[in-house]
Amino acid sequence: MYPKIKRRPTRKVWVGNVSVGGDSPIRVQSMTNTSTTDLSATLSQIQKLVEAGCEIVRVAIPDEKAVNALKDVVKESPIPVIADLHFATSLGEKAVKAGCAGIRINPGTFKNKANLERLLKVCKDYNCCVRIGINAGSLEPEILKKYKTPSYRAMVESALRWVEYVVEKIDYYNLKVSLKSSNWWETVKAYLAFSKKSDFPLHVGVTEAGGLIPGTIKNTMAISYLLLRGIGDTLRVSLTGDPTEEVYVAYEILRNLGLRALHPEIIACPTCGRCEIDLSSLYQKVETWAKKVKADIKLAVMGCVVNGPGEAKMADVGIAGGKGVGVIFREGKIVKKVPEKTLLDEFFKEVEAFLQAHPERVINPRQ
Ligand code: SF4
């Protein structure tokens, strides 16, 4: 049913109380797009991300005000918070001391090595996980000079150089690495090459991937390619828009590879001229509902008797539409035939009944 995937052995590191790498599940993370200084907006977005299944959240720390607000964000957030830093290391030290579980640094944007060394030593003192986040758009000048373009080889050399620096100079190992480009294939090549040379856990994703449809496609191409080869310990699907969508897309990728499920899978037909119920609206309602449910179950929402009964039978609970009616299947058997206007309510009742009979299919996302 799913491809056989052998995950690449990696070190286990910790972002607060969430492990990444080793035998940990592939962790799903996202980033808030609120101003970090707006505590209520940031916490409300974090809460929505958590409901969607996000396990680690990153917040931007562009200035002193943001780092001052971070303490409260960390205190109130139900999941570990990572501070995202560029350019100024003094902010980094304050962020670590404010209690963030991890920092993401882009070494290409840190000009002063002495400051960076001091920051990394503070991370070590506080056991704050460090992500070395290499980005093709901001490689160090000497690397760019050597490679002429921000190629995957340039990204890999930069990443290896920084990993070696942190390990040898700081003697610190609570590290993960990302090597992102806005070109998915260049991104893939960078991760493939890096993974042959280091066993630190990898945070995978494509940067600046765009909005929901193009961004989902670009991320899925790169992330799936890597995960199929066992590469990737945590992922962020980068999308322009509502970050909760990043989390739903991440789980869709993981579920379709048989790596991890969180929300119900929905089988739905595209509809055609044979459909005699309002299947699109029915589907939308089921999808919205399913985003709030954490269970490894398969639902089917099908338009007519051509493929409807077959798919509905194979699902845990399914609908096969008819003329203004729907037949509901549960565990392969017809349980009800109901008019269209009560179809959704009856369907949800059957799903609830299924989950009561199969509590093992309900998922606790923090395991
Ligand atoms: S299941 Fe029926 S309504 Fe849906 S696409 Fe197939 S033929 Fe059309």
Overview of this protein structure:
With 367 residues, the chain is an alpha/beta fold. The chain has two domains: 13-256, Dihydropteroate synthase-like (TIM Barrel, Alpha-Beta Barrel); 265-361, Sulfite Reductase Hemoprotein, domain 1 (2-Layer Sandwich), CATH 3.30.413.10. The chain is 43% helix and 19% strand. The protein is built from twelve helices and 15 strands. It has helices at 39-52, 64-76, 89-97, 113-126, 141-147, 152-170, 184-195, 212-228, 243-256, 279-290, 308-314, 340-357, and strands spanning 13-15, 18-20, 27-31, 56-60, 81-85, 102-105, 129-135, 175-180, 203-204, 234-235, 265-268, 298-302, 317-321, 325-330, 333-339. An eight-stranded parallel sheet has the order 8-7-6-5-4-3-10-9. The chain has a five-stranded mixed sheet with strand order 11-12-13-14-15, sandwiched between helices. Helix 5 packs across helix 6 and helix 7 runs parallel beside helix 8 (212-228). The longest helix is centred in the middle third of the chain and has 19 residues, at 152-170. The model has no long low-confidence stretch (mean pLDDT 95). Bound molecules: iron/sulfur cluster. Residues 269-272, 274-275, 302-304, 306-308 line the site of iron/sulfur cluster. Residues 265-352 form the IspG C-terminal domain. Keywords: 4Fe-4S, Iron, Iron-sulfur, Isoprene biosynthesis, Metal-binding, Oxidoreductase. One of its GO terms (molecular function) is 4 iron, 4 sulfur cluster binding. [4Fe-4S] cluster binds at residues 269, 272, 304, 311. Its EC number is 1.17.7.3.
